[in-house]
Amino acid sequence: MRSQQTRTVCWSPTWSAGFENIGLEHVVLAPRSADSVLLACDESGVPFRLTYLLRWDAAGCIRTADFHSRHGLQEKRLLLRSDGSGHWTTGDGHALAGLKGCIDIDIWPTPLTNSLPIWRSQLRIGERREFRMAWIAAPDLTVEAKQQAYTRLRDRLYLFESLDDSGFQATLDVDEDDIVLDYPGLFRRLSVS
After folding, report:
1. Of 68, 172, 59, 182, which is closest to residue 122 (Cα–Cα)?
2. Which of 10, 59, 73, 135 could join 146 in a cystine, given CB atoms 3.0 to 4.6 angstroms apart?
3. Does residue 142 lie within any of the structural domains?
4. Angstrom distance (rounded) from CA 37 to CA 76
5. 25: how many CB neighbours lie within 10 A of its CB?
6. Are the C-beta atoms of residues 80 and 90 closer than 8 Å to each other?
């Protein structure tokens, strides 16, 4: 994050057909951490809650990621630790070999984690870079490695590409701190303070 001020950022999820704009993500973003609560409905209309706390080092590499989800009556927790060099463990120290080489994380569903590789990489306009991401899917809190790419198109505009078979792409407008504004078809930014 460019700013060293603590900020609050909120988005409304718009991805769930019939439940657009029902829900809210509220993130308290500090210079080296993010503390979030997200309330939303899944594609079937079942409400869920996700809380997460991320901490990163001075180089912008995730060091801890703690998750708690509640989906209906099911409750799940996930604790991840990283050495900042692509080696991950669970909270109790078990190695996660499948995440080897992942520096950044991408959490579904939040646009916040799209900012992590943008902050860390400092791409020049026209530059494209591929990333191996630890991809966490809520509310089940599954985790797997996924390839993604970011291209800086203009000063505050990036092309995001999922490099799996989905072919998913999105053009992301960011603010002066490289935090995603509206994410077409998925999130609408509500406020910043």
Report:
1. 59
2. 135
3. yes
4. 15
5. 22
6. yes
In a domain, 140, yes or no: yes
Give SS3 for 14. coil
**Does the pLDDT at position 21 exceed 80?**
no
DSSP H/E element including 120: helix 115-121
Q: Which domain holds residue 93?
A: 7-192
* Residue whose C-alpha is closest to residue 123's, from 147, 158, 169, 175: 158
Task: Residue 107: name the closest of 27, 181, 182 by CA.
Answer: 27
- What tokens were used for 109? 């569903």
| Residue appearing with tokens 């935090």 | 179
**CB distance 103 to 131 below 8 Å:** yes
Number of domains observed in the structure of the chain: 1
What pLDDT score does 67 carry? 98
- The reply to whether 166 falls in a domain is yes
CA distance 12 to 188: 5
Quickly state the pLDDT bin for 107 (edges 50, 70, 90).
Answer: very high
How many beta carbons lie within 10 A of that of residue 124, not counting itself? 7
- Residue 1 domain flag: no
Nearest to 22 by CA among 2, 51, 47: 47
Q: What is the average per-residue pLDDT within 95-119?
A: 96
Q: From the CB of residue 29, how many other CB atoms can be counted at a distance below 10 Å?
A: 22
